[in-house]
Inverse folding.
């Protein structure tokens, strides 16, 4: 199993929480800086893929981090948005952001495990995840939990990195993600392993049709995906 810190004996879940606690202070800056701001566009497109859900919906944002996708989801005019994440420091930054924007009546963030979601079955109208599913310790369990708490006909939108296949973007992407990202990430966040893990986790992630097959096995229907920015990221949509 791929973990962020190869010299530690703790499990992936604990290491991922430690990693995000480590880089939380610089996470938003690095996200926007390293993607040249394109990550904001990707999030908006992810939310637009849910435009068919009712305007008074309850929405769950899994692996919510500092809350950027939860905030973007306000475009859907939901009744309530709940964000869960295992990183206490990421959530702290997210809650500060939400309070400053005076959104805490609609958006709440809480520490929670994506593989053991503390809500009853058929609770949410929609679920979002941005760059989180590849960090699950047990992908099948995490996706199963999302399925469990989703209402019948409810919709999921999952934004995740993928790998460009065409020359020369494939070569440029590999150089940037494998060489430049860890170097820049180390300088700014002081955690080299976090951005080495980013490349490795994307490389090992079952993207495209393989990920669609994972969703179908768990009972999701109407499963589709759309590549973004020449395949650097993908949005996966499905219904319960």
């Amino acid at each position: 199993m791929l973990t962020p810190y190869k010299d530690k004996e703790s499990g992936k879940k604990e290491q991922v929480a430690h990693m995000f606690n480590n880089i939380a202070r610089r996470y938003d800056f690095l996200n926007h800086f390293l993607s040249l701001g394109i990550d904001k566009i990707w999030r908006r497109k992810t939310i637009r893929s849910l435009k068919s859900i009712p305007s008074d919906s309850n929405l769950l944002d899994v692996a919510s981090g500092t809350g950027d996708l939860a905030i973007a989801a306000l475009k859907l005019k939901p009744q309530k948005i709940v964000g869960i994440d295992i990183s206490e420091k990421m959530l702290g930054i997210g809650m500060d952001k939400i309070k400053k924007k005076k959104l805490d009546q609609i958006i709440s963030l809480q520490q929670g495990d994506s593989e053991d979601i503390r809500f009853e079955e058929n609770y949410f109208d929609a679920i979002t995840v941005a760059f989180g599913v590849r960090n699950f310790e047990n992908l099948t369990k995490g996706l199963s939990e999302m399925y469990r708490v989703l209402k019948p006909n409810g919709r999921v939108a999952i934004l995740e990195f993928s790998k460009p296949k065409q020359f020369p973007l494939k070569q440029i992407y590999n150089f940037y993600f494998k060489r430049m990202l860890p170097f820049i990430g180390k300088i700014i966040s002081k955690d080299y392993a976090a951005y080495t893990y980013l490349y490795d986790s994307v490389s090992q992630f079952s993207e495209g049709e393989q990920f669609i097959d994972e969703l179908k096995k768990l009972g999701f229907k109407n499963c589709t995906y759309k590549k973004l920015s020449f395949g650097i990221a993908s949005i996966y949509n499905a219904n319960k």
Notes: The beta strands are 58-62, 80-85, 107-111, 124-130, 150-161, 221-228, 233-239. The mean pLDDT is 94. The first helix runs from residue 12 to 34.
